[in-house]
């Protein structure tokens, strides 16, 4: 796993003090061991030197007392030790130092070969220390006295010495011993004292380094903990606040509202604020403009509320406010002020000036006992109602408001419809469409109808379609119908033919993704496009005429056909009939149902039929409830009829229903 350069630098910045301390501690420990080892070797060398000079005096004394010349040889052996050390000292004091000669001198001084490099290192680099300098000075002084033995040794070596001369040698040796013994002792004592001082210094240094390491560890640990606390605080802030505006987010807002609802029952208020015209700012100025506007709105709203109020951004362009201990009058006054402040915002972006407003929903929580979800739902409904009534206004939630009650019912339908889509609770029915002229059709012709099944009961479209249209769910319902209808048609045996009419909503006409969806659905089902006839209402077609024409032409290019549904409700649409590429015109059933009783309805049906035929369209009359109406339609010359006298809606299944036998004039009679 590769580590990024940034994380590597971060690791180095954190770890380098510890690495440095460890390195320094290691170096100090190594240095301490080296110094201790060198001091030990130096003390050992001093002991050998002291023993050598002591033995040299001793053996000369024995010779002077006994005249035994074997003691002379042993004197030379003992004297070689201090003489070797003297040669080594002189080699090290030379400029430049003669290391090889010094090594040989210490070797002659009976020092262990492994100890000699440590003694040389200590002598070369630390003789400037006062304690070492005093030791070497005592060494040099004692050595100068000891050198007086050399003439005596040469004399007893080169000639026979009589008893008188031996007594004189004994006297000289006693004088030399009296001088050299204190010097040797002082040399040894100073060396011992220096060793203890150096060891003390090394101990203090190691303890100090350990204390520094501990302090650094504590400091670093405290820094880590402080850094962790800062990160936790930042994470906590980020988890409860909006990154864009810095306001509390929905999570903190709901927590605060929940605590307030669970507390003592007193006068509280809740507000939802939804910005009007915000989409225009985002579309025209870009998201950067929208973000800056949200920050501006947040700053202005914060200044207008009380210090105890909690303003939060709930998402998008929606804000919420919790107002503890707020009377209905004060809540309404604050809501009006917030609306006015929002409306007064003069927002300019890239030279363009934008105007916005706010729809504010207010809920007085003291009027009843609310749960958290009930309070949020009430505020949401109140805000929706403010938008429904024209925007840029304040709406107070009232349980007795009829329009609000209907709106609430529609909102309830939204949840039910979402659940129905997820659970496939919709059912498809079909109603036959038959030719009026009595010639009959060899292929099935029907309109596919939608029903909702809940708890074993079927609900007609009139119960849920208004809510679906109001809250933008019709494109989802249209896709469900198309997908399932094609699946049923595709599972029918034999060659697929006939005409199957499917209703499309006005929102689907504006949906750019519907055409790719339809192409994919046709490809998967292998149903030919020419068996589909899509019905659109004249209102939705005329409302977005150019878009509707482009949409219809694209689908007709695939092979689909179109019918203009509920024709005649808006008479202004007659002028657009030629422009709309439809194959059928469905005469609205409100005219057909009463055409036998109302002369105006008869004339309307007749006029629509004539105009449609002149425009090259076939006509379908809806709500044909009896044979009398069917006979009237034959007289007028309408092409097709649909209604209970033709056939009632029945489940749309993969097994094709029997063809409708058209009514004949004899049947009518």
Automatic annotation (TrEMBL):
SUPFAM superfamilies, A to Z: EAL domain-like, Nucleotide cyclase
Domain of life of the organism encoding this protein: Bacteria
Residue ranges of every copy of the GGDEF domain listed in the record: 266-399
CDD domains assigned: EAL, GGDEF
Every EAL domain range: 410-663
Descriptive protein name: EAL domain-containing protein
Naturally occurring in which organism (per UniProt): Shinella lacus
């Amino acid at each position: 796993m590769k580590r990024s350069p940034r994380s590597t630098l971060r690791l180095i910045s954190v770890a380098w003090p510890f690495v440095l301390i460890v390195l320094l501690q290691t170096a100090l420990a190594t240095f301490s061991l080296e110094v201790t080892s060198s001091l030990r070797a130096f003390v050992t060398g001093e002991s050998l030197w002291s023993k050598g000079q002591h033995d040299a005096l001793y053996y000369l004394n024995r010779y002077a007392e006994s005249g035994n010349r074997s003691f002379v040889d042993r004197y030379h052996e003992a004297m070689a030790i201090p003489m070797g050390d003297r040669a080594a000292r002189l080699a090290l004091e030379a400029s430049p130092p003669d290391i090889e000669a010094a090594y040989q001198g210490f070797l002659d001084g009976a020092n262990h070969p492994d100890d000699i490099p440590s003694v040389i290192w200590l002598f070369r680099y630390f003789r400037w220390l006062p304690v070492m300098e005093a030791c070497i000075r005592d060494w040099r002084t004692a050595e100068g006295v000891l050198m007086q033995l050399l003439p005596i040794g040469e004399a007893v070596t080169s000639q026979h010495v009589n008893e008188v001369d031996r007594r004189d040698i004994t006297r000289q040796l006693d004088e030399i011993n009296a001088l050299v013994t204190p010097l040797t002792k002082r040399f040894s004592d100073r060396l011992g004292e220096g060793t203890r001082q150096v060891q003390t210094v090394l101990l203090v240094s190691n303890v100090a380094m350990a204390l520094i390491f501990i302090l650094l560890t504590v400091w670093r640990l405290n820094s880590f903990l402080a850094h962790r606390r800062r990160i936790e605080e930042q994470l906590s802030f980020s988890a409860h606040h909006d990154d864009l505006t810095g306001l509390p987010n929905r999570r903190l807002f709901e927590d605060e509202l929940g605590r307030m609802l669970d507390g003592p029952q007193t006068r509280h208020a809740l507000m939802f604020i939804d910005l009007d015209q915000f989409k225009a700012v985002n579309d025209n100025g870009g998201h950067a403009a929208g973000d800056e506007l949200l920050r501006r709105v947040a700053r202005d709203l914060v200044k207008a509320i009380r210090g105890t109020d909690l303003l939060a951004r709930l998402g998008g362009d929606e804000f919420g406010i919790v107002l503890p201990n707020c009377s209905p009058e004060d809540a309404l006054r604050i809501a009006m002020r917030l609306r006015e402040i929002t409306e007064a915002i003069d927002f300019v972006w890239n030279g363009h000036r934008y105007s916005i407003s706010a729809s504010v929903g207010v809920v007085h929580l003291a009027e009843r006992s609310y749960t958290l979800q009930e309070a949020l739902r009430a505020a949401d409904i109140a805000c929706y109602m403010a938008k429904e009534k024209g925007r840029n206004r304040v709406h107070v939630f009232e349980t007795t408001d009829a329009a609000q009650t209907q709106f609430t019912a529609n909102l309830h339908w939204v949840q039910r419809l979402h659940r129905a889509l997820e659970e496939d609770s919709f059912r498809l029915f079909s109603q036959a469409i038959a030719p009026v002229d009595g010639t009959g059709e060899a292929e099935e012709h029907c309109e596919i109808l939608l029903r909702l099944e809940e708890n074993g009961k079927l609900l007609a479209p009139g119960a849920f379609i208004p809510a679906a249209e109001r809250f933008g769910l019709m494109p989802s319902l249209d896709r469900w119908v198309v997908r399932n209808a094609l699946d049923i048609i595709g599972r029918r045996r034999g060659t697929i033919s006939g005409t199957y009419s499917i209703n499309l909503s006005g929102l689907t006409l504006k949906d750019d993704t519907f055409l790719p969806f339809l192409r994919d659905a046709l490809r998967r089902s292998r149903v030919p496009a020419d068996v589909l006839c899509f019905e659109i209402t004249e209102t939705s077609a005329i409302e977005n005429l150019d878009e509707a024409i482009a949409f219809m032409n694209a689908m007709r290019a695939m092979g689909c056909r179109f019918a203009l549904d509920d024709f005649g409700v808006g008479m202004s649409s007659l002028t657009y009939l030629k422009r709309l590429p439809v194959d059928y015109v469905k005469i609205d059933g409100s005219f057909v149902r009463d055409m036998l009783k109302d002369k105006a309805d008869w004339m309307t049906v007749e006029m629509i039929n004539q105009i449609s035929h002149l425009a090259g369209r076939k006509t379908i009359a809806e709500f044909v409830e009896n044979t009398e109406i069917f006979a009237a339609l034959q007289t007028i010359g309408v092409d097709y009829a649909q209604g209970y006298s033709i056939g009632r809606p029945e489940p749309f299944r993969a097994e094709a229903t029997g063809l409708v036998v058209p009514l004949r004039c004899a049947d009518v009679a």
